[in-house]
Design brief:
Layout lengths: L2 E7 L4 E7 L2 E7 L2 H8 L5 E6 L2 H10 L5 E3 L8 E2 L8 H13 L4 E6 L2 E7 L4 E9 L1 H10 L20 H28 L3 E6 L13 E2 L3 H12 L1
Parallel strand pairs: 1-4, 4-5, 6-9, 7-10, 10-11
Antiparallel strand pairs: 1-2, 2-3, 7-8, 8-9
Helix pairs in contact: 3-6
GO biological process, one term: coenzyme A biosynthetic process
Keywords: ATP-binding, Coenzyme A biosynthesis, Cytoplasm, Kinase, Metal-binding, Nucleotide-binding, Potassium, Transferase
Enzyme class: transferase
Length: 232
């Protein structure tokens, strides 16, 4: 049985997925517990993408038991109106998967430290997108740049009104984040017409009740990395 592992090295977390004979069997946030488990697992290949060079170096130094191949972009594989050299490898591989699967026109939303929004039109052309602060980043920045407001964990679930300062922060940050994401989804109607919405990343499940017809797949990026690695 061929076992392969892929990593997405982000600004906050390192996410991984284990594949056995092309099927994902395990995924999550990479931790010391997972590391010890992988040291006992015979792996054929290990691939990664990274949006943070410092974290990548540290990750490689701390995981020398893995022969990690860092994936690079092949810009010629997608048609884009974006500055291809500046398009992040994480966005590149998800756009490429969308094109390979022929699930366009589409909006791909990747939630994390920063949220990214990528629009693909009916001709399979990536017309560009947006980058915004992620949910946790919004909460941290408000606490950082104000004197009397403390950092809170944004409340997820039903949108409601806060009855005290802590609730006002929790519900306010969450509501602003949700409505912001919804507005980018609605913008897609004007930019590319009727389209599929694909949501991935650590906060994907929080949007399930607000983007009713969206494809919610927290591991879409990890699957995209694996498919890219297998076909280059």
């Amino acid at each position: 049985m061929n076992k392969e592992i892929v990593f997405s090295i982000g600004n906050t977390n390192i996410r991984y997925a284990l594949f056995e004979d092309s099927l994902m069997t395990e995924s999550g946030i990479y931790s010391e517990h997972v590391k010890k488990k992988m040291q006992k697992t015979p792996l054929v290949k290990a691939f990664c993408i990274s949006v943070n060079s410092k974290r990548l170096k540290k990750f490689k130094d701390e995981n020398k038991f893995l022969d990690i191949i860092e994936l690079k972009k092949e810009n010629k594989l997608i048609k884009t109106e974006y500055d291809a050299d500046k398009l992040g490898i994480d966005r590149f591989v998800t756009v490429l998967k969308c094109l390979k699967d022929k699930t366009f026109p589409a909006l791909i939303i990747d939630t994390g430290t920063a949220d990214t929004f990528d629009y693909i039109d009916k001709n399979g052309n990536h017309i560009g997108g947006f980058i915004t602060p992620g949910l946790t980043t919004m909460a941290k920045s408000l606490a950082k740049f104000t004197f009397s407001l403390k950092e809170v964990e944004p409340e997820d679930g039903e949108l409601r009104v806060g009855r005290n300062t802590e609730e006002a922060l929790k519900y306010g940050i969450y509501t602003e984040w949700v409505t912001g994401v919804i507005s980018f989804a609605k913008m897609g109607e004007k930019l590319i017409g009727p389209h599929i919405v694909i949501v991935c990343g650590g906060n994907a499940s929080k949007l399930r009740d607000f983007l009713k017809n969206a494809v919610i797949d927290e591991n879409y990026l990890l699957k995209s990395i694996y498919e890219y690695a297998e076909n280059i």
